[in-house]
């Protein structure tokens, strides 16, 4: 079992072989100190954000500890809910994107929740930026234009994900920008 240590709001996989294994199995985590890692060409630990760490723990792919104490799935879920706004909705969206075969990374540098790749970072560019919103969220036309302009600038499609936790389903709304 791959071990990860909970340090503040991140998980660290110290074992370098395990780090490469997780990264190469789905681009999980970020190798410490390497901005654009190749598939398996690094020899450093990786850092997982809480969402992907919880995803892996819930699938029994990793175990999580803090100090010498193992963290149960429920305890990590509680930590995640304190750290993330809309954690359950974001996790459901992350799960659906992963199930659909996408490699999902943080989209924060693009002003989105996720960037979704067809093959993976370094192999292709993420064609989609995904923002998670509840069905009751009001979005203005200005918000849509801003998101669309950003996505167009970085050559990506802007997607709004509307999760329904009751039905365990997510509706994805894509925006295409056309020039007249």
Descriptive account of the structure:
- The chain is an alpha+beta fold and 180 residues long.
- It has two domains: 1-84, tRNA intron endonuclease, N-terminal domain (MutS, DNA mismatch repair protein, domain I, 3-Layer(aba) Sandwich); 85-180, Trna Endonuclease, Chain: A, domain 1 (3-Layer(aba) Sandwich).
- The chain contains five helices and eleven strands.
- The protein has helices at residues 16-24, 50-58, 73-83, 87-99, 141-153; strands at 2-7, 10-13, 30-31, 46-49, 62-66, 69-71, 103-106, 114-117, 128-132, 157-164, 169-175.
- The strands form two sheets. It has a six-stranded mixed sheet. The chain has a five-stranded mixed sheet with strand order 7-8-9-10-11.
- Strand 10 and strand 11 form a beta hairpin.
Brief synopsis:
The protein has 180 residues and is an alpha+beta fold. It has 2 domains: 1-84, 3-Layer(aba) Sandwich (MutS, DNA mismatch repair protein, domain I); 85-180, Trna Endonuclease, Chain: A, domain 1. It has helices at residues 16-24, 50-58, 73-83, 87-99, 141-153; strands at residues 2-7, 10-13, 30-31, 46-49, 62-66, 69-71, 103-106, 114-117, 128-132, 157-164, 169-175.
